[in-house]
């Protein structure tokens, strides 16, 4: 399930994040690569464990906590501290799949990567190329969103970033361990959540049908969730 999350960050929050991360020195992006990714990855990355990394990541984590769409789609149990990368001058990331388990450098924090997320931090008209291309059951989907918008997709998907031929692509990326491991079950829960919200808007929160559907949703979540 691929979900776009519009305006996860406000324009002011994007400016704050960029002010923090643009002011420090970046390193080769392969510092976080697995063996397969290192063969395909050509970009730069903000160093982990620095004050800039923590401050900019905190802004994104706060935004995730406010986003009902993110919570409904991801059902998050753990979120990996957001990382930051940038591409320019033809840099790209070839086709790969994300590691199943991600471990934070310098700590014992680890998550199972059920979902991957990219938050775009550069105006989409400011650069050419840089599309995130995700392979799914219905073929490839190409994603390039305005600054502040985000996309959530299964970490098990093959995906790549096309070469940036003009300007610079700047983004945050990270992984989520969901309370519900199975992507199909998460899809059912997300679609039911959206249906319950639509019914509540049409009928009222205290309508018997809305109450019954809400109960079904939570009973399914109770059956499938690892919390």
Provide structural commentary.
The protein folds into two domains: 3-178, Sandwich (Jelly Rolls); 183-224, DNA Excision Repair, Uvrb, Chain A (Irregular), CATH 4.10.860. The mean pLDDT is 94. It is α+β, with helices and mostly antiparallel strands and 227 residues long. Strands 1, 2, 3, 4, 5, 9, 13 and 16 form an eight-stranded antiparallel sheet that branches. Strands 6-14-11-12 form a four-stranded antiparallel sheet. The chain has a two-stranded antiparallel ribbon with strand order 7-8. A hairpin with a 2-residue loop joins strand 11 and strand 12 (139-143). Helix 1 (11-21) packs antiparallel against helix 3 (51-66) and helix 5 packs antiparallel against helix 6. It contains six helices and 16 strands.
As a whole number of angstroms, the C-alpha radius of gyration is: 18 Å
CATH superfamily annotation of the largest domain: q2cbj1_9rhob like domain
Poorly predicted segments: none
The percent of residues in helical segments reads 25-40%
Computed structural class: alpha+beta
Q: How would you sum up the major sheet?
A: 8 strands, antiparallel
Shape: globular
CATH architecture of the largest domain: Sandwich
Count of distinct structural domains: 2
Beta fraction: 25-35%
Mean pLDDT: 94
CATH class category label of the largest domain? Mainly Beta
């Amino acid at each position: 399930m691929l979900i776009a999350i519009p305006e996860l960050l406000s324009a002011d929050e994007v400016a704050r994040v960029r002010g923090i991360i643009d002011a420090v020195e970046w390193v080769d992006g392969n510092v976080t690569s697995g063996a397969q990714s290192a063969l395909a990855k050509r970009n730069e990355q903000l160093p982990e464990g620095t004050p800039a990394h923590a401050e900019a990541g905190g802004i994104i984590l706060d935004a995730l906590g406010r986003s009902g769409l993110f919570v409904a789609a991801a059902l998050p149990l753990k979120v990996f501290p957001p990382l930051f990368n940038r591409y320019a001058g033809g840099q790209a990331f070839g086709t790969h799949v994300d590691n199943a388990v991600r471990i934070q450098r310098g700590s014992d924090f680890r998550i199972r990567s059920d979902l991957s997320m990219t938050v775009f931090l550069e105006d989409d008209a400011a650069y050419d190329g840089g599309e995130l291309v995700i392979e799914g059951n219905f073929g490839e989907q190409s994603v390039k969103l305005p600054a502040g918008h985000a996309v959530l997709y299964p970490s098990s998907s093959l995906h790549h970033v096309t070469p940036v031929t003009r300007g610079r692509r700047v983004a945050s990326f990270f992984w989520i361990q969901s309370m519900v491991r199975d992507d199909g079950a998460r899809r059912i829960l997300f679609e039911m959540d959206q249906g319950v919200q639509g019914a509540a808007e049409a009928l009222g929160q205290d309508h018997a049908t809305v109450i019954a559907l809400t109960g079904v949703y939570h009973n399914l979540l109770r059956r499938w969730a690892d919390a």
